[in-house]
Fold:
Amino acid sequence: MVGIIIVTHYALGEALITCAQHIMGRPLPQLKQLAVSKADDPDEIVRRAQALIADVDDGSGVLLLTDIFGGTPSNVANRLIVPGRVEAVAGVNLPMLVRALTYGHQPIEIVVSKALTGGLEGVLYMLPAGPQG
Structure:
């Protein structure tokens, strides 16, 4: 099972994990999060992330999901990429996370692809439902 680590500003990752567990209806031991603050030392964050990677990697690889490309969390994730083993996607949202979890038993390349499409397809402009009636 591909491990997933959410690397985000402050508590966003924790909130996404709570929501994903609710939606999936089961514990998600392959899913961890790393909260990053502006005050954190980036080298220390990288060390903490490496420990989390070792914890969730069963040999299937690890997907890092981060929030804003160019921010500290994505810069940390970028330092951890090992193509084919540790991959990263920026712009995390709940549809992306749920899709990655749903396909976590597939090879990491598939999980990355499903995460990207889930994130993109989960962003929609909503029109009013119309009269109830």
Observations:
- Helices lie at 12-24, 42-56, 72-80, 94-102, 108-121.
- The mean pLDDT is 96.
- The chain has five helices and four strands.
- The first strand starts at residue 3 and ends at 9.
